[in-house]
Write a structure and sequence with these properties.
The protein is α/β, with parallel strands linked by helices. The protein is built from eleven helices and 14 strands. Helix 7 packs across helix 8 and helix 10 runs antiparallel to helix 11.
């Protein structure tokens, strides 16, 4: 079973403007959609779309709009009841292909709600399960929540991946001596945060075909105890560092409609490959293919397998 935890789920509202976004101006919305959001929910959607067993766990009141949408999604899920409302994240898409994101922090969880969420996750995890801890932490959750969960999950025989940023990521890395996950999925900016490098420069290097700086940074993380590191590099592609080696896969070029959910789609692709026994280079190719397909879709739309083109031959060993 693949199990995702979304510690701070969301409703993702995407509005499209007919004219460029101008601060202080008045704009007209030409399209408006609301979809399920939160990194773990996005990952679960991609995995479910590939026909694999997946369970999505998140905090939400049963009467929340988020719960209603998730109930109609077909994704197997368990919700940990909370009093607060699920946050709404706003994405504004305006000409010429500009995406502006405005995210709410989310409602705070009480200590009892935190304990209940942790207990719900641990209740459903068994030996051999793949567990993905994804996204920001809802207010009220301890900043080291992911480190706490890695320690709690490890004795259960689960494989554990993490995709987060900022303070929760820093708290996780501060305890890698006993809480290093099996998998980490940073983007270039987050890789820079972890290694003291300029993330923008790392991505620019990859776009110019200079993969060595990203490879060295990812391999340095692995040397600190991580199992595997998948670095998503925007339009340049992605890089994977494992115990077996390091590889780079370029992204297929195409029209960019929305970048929201692209990293989560890449994670879903990687988990699909891992669960079906693909090799490390094949998992990388699938991850990049899912991320590439996602940017060609509107809003927070996670691609189906028939929308994904895997370019396994394009992967190069470094």
């Amino acid at each position: 079973m693949i199990i995702t935890l979304t510690a701070n789920p969301s409703l993702d509202r995407t509005v499209e403007l007919g004219t460029p976004l101008v601060p202080g101006g008045v704009h007209r919305i030409v399209a408006d959609t609301t979809q399920l959001g939160g990194k773990g929910i996005n990952v679960a959607s991609g995995v479910a779309g590939a026909g694999l067993d997946v369970l999505a766990i998140a905090p939400s009141a049963p009467e929340d709009e988020f719960a209603a949408l998730l109930g109609g999604s077909g994704i197997l899920h368990r919700l940990s009841p909370v009093l607060g409302a699920v946050r709404t994240n706003l994405t504004v898409v305006s000409p010429p292909d500009v995406t502006t994101k405005i995210n709410e922090p989310g409602a705070g969880l009480t200590a009892d709600e935190t304990d209940a969420l942790e207990a719900l996750l641990l209740e459903h995890v068994g030996d051999g399960d793949l567990v993905m801890l994804s996204g920001s932490l809802a207010p009220g959750l301890p900043v080291d929540e992911y480190a706490r969960l890695v320690r709690a999950l490890r004795p259960r025989g689960a494989w554990v991946g993490v995709d987060t940023s900022d303070a929760p990521l820093a708290a996780l890395t501060a305890t890698w001596s006993d809480a290093a996950p099996d998998f980490l999925k940073p983007n270039a900016e987050e890789l820079g945060q972890l290694t003291g490098l300029d993330g923008t420069a790392l991505e620019a290097d990859a776009e110019r075909g200079r993969y060595a700086p990203v490879a060295r940074a990812a391999e340095a993380l692995r040397a600190r105890g991580l199992g595997s590191v998948l670095v998503t590099l925007g339009g340049a592609g992605g890089l994977l560092a494992t115990a077996e080696g390091t590889w780079f896969s370029p992204a297929r070029t195409g029209q960019v409609v929305s970048t929201v959910g692209a990293g989560d789609s890449a994670t879903a692709g990687y988990l699909i490959g891992l669960a079906t026994g693909e090799s490390a280079p094949e998992r990388l190719a699938r991850a990049v293919a899912y991320g590439t397909a996602a940017v060609g879709l509107p809003g927070t739309t996670i691609p189906r397998p028939d929308q994904v083109t895997v370019l396994a031959d394009a992967v190069v060993a470094l």
